[in-house]
Amino acid sequence: MGKTVVACAIIAAMRAAGARVAPMKPVESGGSTDAEQLRAASGIGYAMHLVRPFAFEEPLAPLVAARRARTFIDVAVLDSAFADLCAMSDVVIVEGAGGLLVPITETENFATLFKRWNLPLVIVAANRLGTLNHALLTVEAALAHGIDVRAVVLNSVSNERHGTAQRTNQAVLKELLRTIPVLTFPHTGRPGDHAHLAVLARELSSHATMARPV
Fold it and tell me: Most C-beta atoms within 10 A of its C-beta, which of 22, 99, 149, 181?
């Protein structure tokens, strides 16, 4: 839910600025409605087979979910859907699933997919204990694949009072990452209010301009 809310917010902010934004969730598992939320934020009824080419019921990594469903993920279908969305829009926001190195097929993960599509990256991490390791590993993996990291976004997953880790994560990441912006995104109880999300994401959208995957 955290990545999807931030992705919807970026879409809403870009849309409010006049851009025609297409959303994409290449693979969705667990019966979630992430792709539907992304499409709603875009305000355009893009065909679901383009927004979400593959969907699986079990909440598993795409490779595992496809195997258990006795099928496979055809990367050519993903490439075609992405190309179609690019042709229909000014920008495409692509939300990954589970993490940058989560396997899609035996030879493909989200890092290799995003690299082939020449996409810069906005990393969304829940702001909590353990986030430093998660964020730094993801940045390192992205850079190793030659992916341009536009920003790291620390997402508040609840409105509870922050502990020491939540209060210090941003400053430490700014110190360690130096040239990569480290931003925060507040908890919101209005994930379906796109005007509200657009306001929250104004700063994010400036860093995410031309940054399609989240």
Answer: 22
Question: Whole-prediction pTM value?
Answer: 0.88
Q: Give per-residue pLDDT as tens, 43-52.
A: 999 999 999 9
165: tokens are 């880790």
CA neighbor of 150 nearest in space, from 115, 181, 114, 173:
181
Q: How far apart are CA 87 and CA 91, in angstroms?
A: 9
Residue 179 has pLDDT above 50, yes or no: yes
Name every residue whose Cβ is closer than 8 Å to that of residue 131 and which is 6 or more positions away in sequence: 125, 154, 165, 169
Whether the CB-CB separation of 123 and 148 falls below 8 Å is answered with no
pLDDT tens sequence across 84-103: 999 999 999 999 999 999 99
Residues 94, 82 contacting (CB under 8 angstroms): yes
* Residues carrying an active site annotation: 25
Q: How wide is the angle at C-alpha 127 spanned by C-alphas 150 and 135, nearest 5°? A: 45
The span from the CA of 36 to the CA of 48, in Å, is 8
Confidence (pLDDT) at 31: 83
Terminal C-alpha separation, the chain: 12
Q: 3-state DSSP call for residue 10?
A: helix
Give CA–CA dist 62/173, Å, rounded: 30
